[in-house]
Design goal:
single chain; mainly alpha; 59 residues
Length: 59
């Protein structure tokens, strides 16, 4: 199960990052909320780091 969870978290972080990137020169509406401005990058980095650790741990 750990071997599957790691890559899923890495892919999820990449998808979330792509989803939150500015489109047509305008930031995503969630990225303009004061609370979410710091929470979204923290979640993306946390998902990627956790997925990387789980992937390495399962090898």
């Amino acid at each position: 199960m750990i071997a599957i969870a790691g890559p899923i978290l890495i892919i999820g972080a990449a998808v979330l990052l792509w989803y939150m990137l500015p489109k047509q020169g305008r930031p995503h509406r969630w990225a303009t909320a004061p609370v979410l401005q710091s929470l979204i990058p923290t979640v993306i980095v946390g998902m990627f780091a956790t997925g990387l650790v789980l992937t390495i741990f399962s090898m």
